[in-house]
Amino acid sequence: MITNEFQYRNTKSLLAEFETRLEALEASAADAARPKLRAIEIAAVRSQADSLREELQEYEEALRSGAVETFTAGGVLGIAELFVKARIARGWSQAQLAEVLGIAVQQVQRYESTGYASASLARLADVAAALGIDVSETATLRRTA
Are residues 14 and 55 located together in one domain of the fold? Predict the structure, then answer.
């Protein structure tokens, strides 16, 4: 999952590299000495490129655009991902969330990179309140004025 603009730019760059590699593999497929091996290589590169496209699409069209307002977690451990998705859907950077919480941006980065594993229940409640989300089995963004 893409969690910030840095990762977004890196993912776009990586996708371009995979697409270039895929074009080269497909162009040389007919001349390959081992066609079955080349077909497997092409399938692997195509699969990875498709995964990167899906991540980019989720980040661009669903999260960053604010089009999605409800996120579902597969359990308690999924709540961390909900917080990241809600932050992105709000259009907030990690720095903006940190400012609202009154903590250092590095702390938000640590929370997000570790799935909020070190956050207390009180901190999780603070994050939910800061993001303006109600958490139950799903997290739903409340409309703001």
Answer: yes
Both 75 and 34 in a single domain?
no
Based on the domain organization, do 89 and 27 belong to the same domain? no
140 bridge partner residues: 70, 134
- 116-125 average pLDDT score: 92
Asked if residue 18 lies in contact with residue 48, where contact means CB atoms within 8 angstroms, the answer is: yes
The phi and psi torsions of 138 (rounded to 5 degrees) equal -130, 160
Contact 131, 90 (CB under 8 A): yes
How many Cβ atoms are within 10 Å of 41's Cβ, its own excluded?
16
> What DSSP string runs through 19-71?
HHHHHHHHHHGGG-SSHHHHHHHHHHHHHHHHHHHHHHHIIIIIIIT----EE
Q: What are the structure tokens assigned to 47, written together?
A: 């699969």
The identity of residue 116, as a single letter, is Y
Q: What is the pTM of this model?
A: 0.69
Same domain, 58 and 115: no
